[in-house]
Design brief:
Layout: H1 21-49, H2 54-58, H3 79-93, H4 99-123, H5 133-152, H6 184-205, H7 211-230, H8 233-239, H9 248-268, H10 277-294, H11 301-304, H12 306-325, H13 335-341, H14 346-366
Helix pairs in contact: 1-3, 1-9, 3-4, 3-9, 3-10, 4-5, 4-10, 5-6, 5-10, 6-10, 6-12, 7-9, 7-10, 7-14
Length: 371
């Protein structure tokens, strides 16, 4: 919306700034940050009146000894504020005539609605399990598939959707050498699984004050950098990444995501005044997955989102090991609970995982030159 102010630059030259993607990126991050910070107190109070407490959301999901009794009254549907701030900021600062911007806003909102429906059933309707897990995952797959189909209908992006970019390789996989991998029959379903998987991975990580929020900041900054480079022909050619006109809108959206998470961290840091709940975590993960697929770096997401992979991977390993051998590999999963049982404090777990997230992001950016 604010992008349109650039059309008035002939009458007021400073308005030309709204035509610069770097200015819009900074504005998007700052706007999302302000919205979430300034409205956080009122949002937390309103959620408390809904009795949307952390204890109700976590009941049955983690061992009772890991539910801090002091947090029983902490509201957990703060994702309404977080995602709302991100979407409002994106609508203001993105060029919404670009299909990439439209896709990111609509798909992220859809993931948030799935999470809201689940949270609402748990904390307002008092249904302990929320919506059935199979239904929730099915809805995530549906939104992911719709987003991938939308990508195939974007003229600039469609030719890239059949190409599989592999870290450290200069060019996409050759269909002649990898006929089963470098074709739409693999890349499109793979993209759907990446988006849905990222959504669930962030949801699993959201178990400590600021943990998922802080890690998402690093992921969004990393993909903002990739989006900027892909949208700039000279940089794209130099770094051997696909050139994608309009990718800069993904950068603006990623900045909104980053700003919103920083603002939410103001309220979500230990001791948290509210948690994001599935309303926020499913949307954050879905947004990260969408960005990864858009910039054609979905395989690299395993490194960019290394902490999320650790969390989700620990759950899968634990379940597989217990079913096959009757033994547990970890003391408790997701893996942050394993370290909690080892005696790490909540602050130690969160800060150390943030450090890992930062290291993973730097390593992912380093792959741009190691080609």
């Amino acid at each position: 919306m604010l992008y349109l102010l650039a059309d008035l630059a002939n009458y007021l030259s400073p308005l030309r700034l709204f035509d610069y993607v770097t200015f819009r990126t900074g504005g998007a991050a700052f706007t999302a940050f302000l919205i979430v910070v300034l409205l956080g107190g009122r949002t937390a109070s309103a959620l408390r009146r809904l009795n949307a407490t952390a204890a109700e959301r976590l009941a049955g999901l983690v061992p009772d000894e890991f539910i801090d009794k002091e947090k029983n009254r902490t509201p957990c549907m703060g994702g309404i504020l977080l995602i709302g701030g991100v979407l409002v900021s994106s609508l203001l600062w993105n060029n919404m005539s670009k299909p990439i911007a439209q896709l990111l806003v609509v798909a992220t909102a859809a993931f948030s609605l799935i999470g809201f429906y689940d949270d609402f059933n748990k904390v307002v309707r008092k249904k302990r399990d929320g919506i059935p897990a199979k239904l929730k995952f099915g809805l995530q797959l549906l939104v992911s598939a719709g987003a991938v189909f939308w990508m195939t209908r974007i003229p600039e992006l469609s030719p890239l959707m059949s190409k599989l970019m592999v870290p450290f390789m200069k060019t996409p996989l050759d269909p002649a050498g990898f006929p089963w991998l470098a074709t739409p029959f693999f890349t499109l379903p793979f993209a759907v699984l990446v988006i849905a998987g990222a959504s669930n991975a962030v949801n699993l990580t959201d178990g400590k004050d600021g943990l998922a929020t802080g890690c998402t900041i690093f992921c969004s900054l990393t993909y903002a950098a990739f989006a900027y480079l892909m949208g700039h022909r000279i940089f794209a050619d130099y770094l051997l990444v696909p050139f994608l006109p309009g990718a800069e809108e993904a950068m603006v959206f990623a900045a909104s995501l980053c700003g919103g998470c920083i603002g939410f961290l103001w309220h979500n840091c230990h001791p948290a005044s509210m948690f994001m709940g599935d309303t926020g975590s499913l949307a954050l993960g879905g947004a990260i997955g969408l960005l990864a697929v858009l910039v054609r770096q979905e395989i690299l997401l395993a490194l960019v989102g290394g902490v999320f992979v650790m969390e989700a991977g620990s759950v899968m390993i634990q379940v597989a090991s217990f079913k096959l051998t009757g033994r547990r590999v970890f003391l408790c999963t997701p893996i942050h609970h394993h370290f909690e049982r080892l005696g790490w404090t909540e602050t130690q777990i969160v800060v150390r995982f943030w450090i890992l997230a930062g290291v993973f992001s730097l390593l992912a950016l380093a792959t741009l030159k190691l080609r």
